[in-house]
Amino acid sequence: MRKLRIGVVLSLVLMAVFVASGCTRDVREPSMFLIPEGYTGWIQIIYNQEDAKPLVKEGSFIRYDIPEDGILRTSTKQLQFGSAIDYYVYVDGEGRRKPIPFALIQGNHNGKMESYQKPPVRMLGGPIVQRFFIGTDEELEQVGPPPLPEVLKEPVS
User: Is residue 87 over pLDDT 80?
Assistant: First the structure.
């Protein structure tokens, strides 16, 4: 009888651990994307670029200062994965910030870039690239998928 109780208790403990482990979520630091006022198009963030600056913290956020062309190169090794509430803002010439409506943030993707260009191109070290589109559904449909950033292209020999 004692073995049965120990077995039942052990089973319940193991079940509780199993259920609890499935309920946890990875949490990451939230991101703040500072985007030039009025920008519409693809944003591409290229990680692990030796000659670029690292991302910086602003309060509890990791700050992304997106340049006019929409392509940010950073020496930060890779983006963080997990749950967070990110902040997307337009920044005017005087540094004033205005939130971008969530409906204008489309197709947030990340991962190792793969060549989909013709002729084939080789990736320089295969960096992680995060990309998303700022604009309406109609603008996204007109523009199509993002181009491979020039800084990643190297002709295949």
Answer: yes
